[in-house]
Amino acid sequence: MSFDVARIRADFPILQRKIRGKPLVFLDSGASAQKPRQVIEAMVRCMEARYANVHRGAYFLSEAATEAYEAARAAVARFIHAGDPREVIFTGNSTAAINLVAHSWGRGVLQPGQAVLVSEMEHHANLVPWQMLRDEGRGIELRVARVTDAGELDLEDVAAKLTDGKVGLVAITHMSNVLGTVTPAERLVRMAHAAGAKILFDGSQAAVHRPIDMQALGADFYAFTGHKLYGPTGIGVLWARLEHQERMPPFMGGGDMISLVTLDRVEWAPPPAKFEAGTPPIVEAVGLHAAIDYVSAIGMPAIEAHERRLVDHAMRRLSDIEGLALLGHAQDRGGVFAFSLDKAHAHDLATLLDRAGIAVRAGRHCAEPLHARFGVEAGTVRASFGLYTTEGEVDYLAEALTKARAFFA
Amino acid sequence: MFDDLRDLYQEVILDHGRRPRNFRRLEDADRTARGDNPMCGDRLELFLKLAPDGSIAEAAFQGRGCAISTASASLMTETVTGKSAAQAHALSDQFRALAMTGSCPDCGEALSEEMERLQPLSGVHEFPSRVKCATLAWHTLNAALDGAKEASSE
């Protein structure tokens, strides 16, 4: 299937609507992406015809729902080239996935005296859980690798912070939600493993923009979320090697995560059920499955190529705008652009763009330390692309920014 | 493209946003308070000098913020100068009603001139995500008058 952006846009009902009388130009997919009809309909079909609780009832509907839920797990496994569907744990979102690792592996496996290494460009979701772990008084240190002025990960600093062999876990973004920077994941895996550390990637942005392959990457943990991947909210994924899952104590206790319970003792269910206490996001899993089928039919390489064209186009158009300062100029980057404009505060700018029908995010995008690093505590405006974004929309954004600057001048 | 935004960004707001009045630190302030809007990173520090009778002799501020929050703080320092603490609190209540609803039917005559000066900010009520930008300075004023050190518009 060739990449036909007009046809793709026709799949997204919300893109047909007008905002304040103007066609919607949705440039906030990095926060949450819009949903294609295929996802919406799959979830409706599930609730209308195939819904019951999973893993419990010996009746037709429960078996059908269980089959659909486990089929979603298998679809995720294929999508990320996992070695085994059991490596896929369903969570609520990326934040929940990372917190699961911090709570379970961080408290059960990581030892006092060991350190966690993150970077300055982490989303709070991959920073705060580790700060909480550090602050518990278990003797876990938190190290922070620097970001260069170009907005790339400072690999020399990463290497320096790994040399003493104390780092037990490297937890790093695969693609910055502010700078658009794609980190050199394969190289980071080699560096971490050579230093005796495990490695977790926050793939919330990366998994949406390019093909990912767990077997080729060789990481230990990988987290991403459904709602940025054109799927529903309420479902995320933690990919974790089975050997790690075996060693990890459960994070939450409840139903569906046990194999035996008496009043005196409990035996845990095998992975990944051990980490999925309670009724899971069943309808959401079905929706995520549909989203994966949707992007897979288009092809992640085709989506990546489309976004590369858009990124090149946006770089040209945005750099033409007087007074616009882009945050980060990484060589390898995806369709996320944070910038400030000399005459206008980010929030004023977002209000103006909204009047033109353009949805962008203003603020610090859950990455306050990164904004401090670049001296833009007041925040930036962020435009982020999806597979439905067009060059025409980028042009319209550039035109609106030029007019907005004149408005405040 | 943005003509219909002139209600929100009236000339007086753009002017106070670009060139805020009383934008300085008062080294010998009797009261100071810091205001934060954690959602957007707006931050301001308010300084008050009080007269012997407790009224506001001088008001000034520093900080960073969008045009709305800067203009609101600037206009506030102008309107509360010379007011008693009770009058300043009353203005604060009335202004917040204006920012949230666009009018203040219960405002009465007592501070009508001051409210007239603040009227250009009433357009913010149509932008729910921006109301807090306009009210941050006033939350901070209440905190300073009450002797608190910090205010948040969250």
TrEMBL record, chain A:
InterPro entries linked to this entry: Aminotrans_V_dom (IPR000192), Cys_dSase_SufS (IPR010970), PyrdxlP-dep_Trfase (IPR015424), PyrdxlP-dep_Trfase_major (IPR015421), PyrdxlP-dep_Trfase_small (IPR015422)
Record-annotated Aminotransferase class V domain positions: 25-397
A GO biological-process term: cysteine metabolic process
Keyword match DNA damage: no
Superkingdom field: Bacteria
Family: Belongs to the class-V pyridoxal-phosphate-dependent aminotransferase family. Csd subfamily.
A Pfam family assignment: Aminotran_5
Transferase listed as a keyword: yes
Cofactor(s) demanded: pyridoxal 5'-phosphate
GO molecular function: cysteine desulfurase activity; pyridoxal phosphate binding
Species name: Roseicella frigidaeris
Record EC number: 2.8.1.7
Keywords: Pyridoxal phosphate, Transferase
Catalyzed reaction equations: (sulfur carrier)-H + L-cysteine = (sulfur carrier)-SH + L-alanine
Protein name: cysteine desulfurase
Automatic annotation (TrEMBL), chain B:
Top-level taxon of origin: Bacteria
Coiled coil: none
SUPFAM superfamilies: SufE/NifU
Alphabetized InterPro entries for the sequence: NIF_FeS_clus_asmbl_NifU_N
UniProt-listed Pfam families: NifU_N
GO terms of biological process kind: iron-sulfur cluster assembly
Stored CDD domains: IscU_like
GO molecular function: iron ion binding; iron-sulfur cluster binding
Chain ranges of the NIF system FeS cluster assembly NifU N-terminal domain: 9-102
Gene3D superfamilies xrefs: 3.90.1010.10
PANTHER family per UniProt: IRON-SULFUR CLUSTER ASSEMBLY ENZYME NIFU HOMOLOG
Family designation: Belongs to the NifU family.
Protein name: SUF system NifU family Fe-S cluster assembly protein
Species this protein is from: Roseicella frigidaeris
